[in-house]
Amino acid sequence: MPGFPKLREDGYDLVVLGGGHAGLQAGLKTALLHHTAAILDRGPKYSRSYYAPRMANIPGWPTGISGHKLLDLQIAALGPWADRVGYFTPARASAVRATDDGFSVEFEWLKQPRVARGRALVLALGVVDRIPVVGGRIDPIFPWANAALVDFCVFCDGHELTGKSVGVIGADPFAVRTALDLVEFEPKSVELLTHGAPFLAGVPGPEREQLLAEMERAGIARHDPEMVGFDGIREKRWIVRFQDGSVREYDRGFSALGWYDLHGEIPRSLGARFDPDGYVVTDEDCRVLSDRTGEPIPGLYCVGDLRNGWNQIPEAWATAERAVIHACNFYL
Ligand SMILES: Cc1cc2nc3c(=O)[nH]c(=O)nc-3n(C[C@H](O)[C@H](O)[C@H](O)COP(=O)(O)OP(=O)(O)OC[C@H]3O[C@@H](n4cnc5c(N)ncnc54)[C@H](O)[C@@H]3O)c2cc1C
User: Which CATH code is given to the segment(s) 130-255?
Assistant: First the structure.
């Protein structure tokens, strides 16, 4: 698709930061509404869904579709609109400035520093999962994650765990709550793997007691030693070797380590408000709210996972549609 687009020196109606599911949809919708957009994206392999082998909640794909293929299809959908939408990749946005007539975005494209100007700006940078570190590296888990034997998202994959034994990685309240949520899907068993990290460190007494009681009620066991390696990929199992020599075998693994990067830097530089979990706060039209006044920041939108809401692709699409329709009606 779009080969090497030409950067319009006179600027765009919209500049979209991030070309995952939300950013690509924002670009497409802009073209359909007869406006122009530049999508600046680091590349599909930085999208959260790039490593999702089979997504079951995408309408039109009754047997599921991979995140990789869905991104390719969304990129291809921009093809007919190349005169209105420039898809710049690999392009990394580094800074944004509000100007008198919109926004000015500094980015690097083809190793050259560039600037894109837009009358409105859509932040669609997504978020990045924290990956378990084993032996100082993050790649040991990749074959199991790519084979959908280790999952990351309760909403996306919880339904796959019914009747299965599950090892959940994590040691904090988020991990415990994730393990409790997974029990709702009626797995055969759930065991929390704290991977050598102090369990519920720093959690106040009453909350700790409550989490421990809920774990016990739900029958969630715990195994504390550090993980040192994995086996079982051929057998489609997740077999975990631990530092103390023990070995545990599960039908599925689940990483509950939270986020590595919530991409807060650019929205913070523009005065955005964040919720307690670190997501950008918007109104219903996905306008970013000012931290100072609580009012929408003119021309600034946030869509997809980065925005407070549910981290799902249909939501990424819906928020992109809302933002672009609003921007075209009000600012462009
Ligand atoms: C393992 C897994 C399985 C999943 N399964 C499902 C599922 O079955 N169903 C479902 O609905 N959802 C699923 N999800 C969630 C889904 O992937 C996300 O909700 C979706 O990707 C969010 O879209 P987004 O556009 O907000 O972010 P992303 O798709 O993550 O895209 C963000 C984009 O921003 C770009 N970017 C980041 N920083 C910069 C920068 N500085 N400059 C330029 N570009 C930048 C990246 O290159 C990336 O392309 C799954 C997620 C994971 C991790």
Answer: 3.50.50.60
Residues 6+ apart with CB under 8 A from 136: none
Ligand 1 pocket test, pick from 125, 141, 259 with the greatest ligand atom count within 8 Å of Cβ, gives 125
> What number is the average pLDDT over the span 140-161?
94
| Residue range 257-270, pLDDT digits in tens | 999 999 999 999 99
Which residues lie closer than 8 Å to 154 by C-beta, 6 or more apart?
178, 181, 182
Ligand 1 center–CA 101 separation, angstroms: 30
Q: How many CB atoms lie within 10 A of CB 174?
A: 14
Nearest-atom index, ligand 1, CA of 56: 8
In short, whether 96's Cβ falls inside 6 Å of ligand 1 is no
The domain over range 12-127+262-330 is classified in CATH as 3.40.1160.10: no
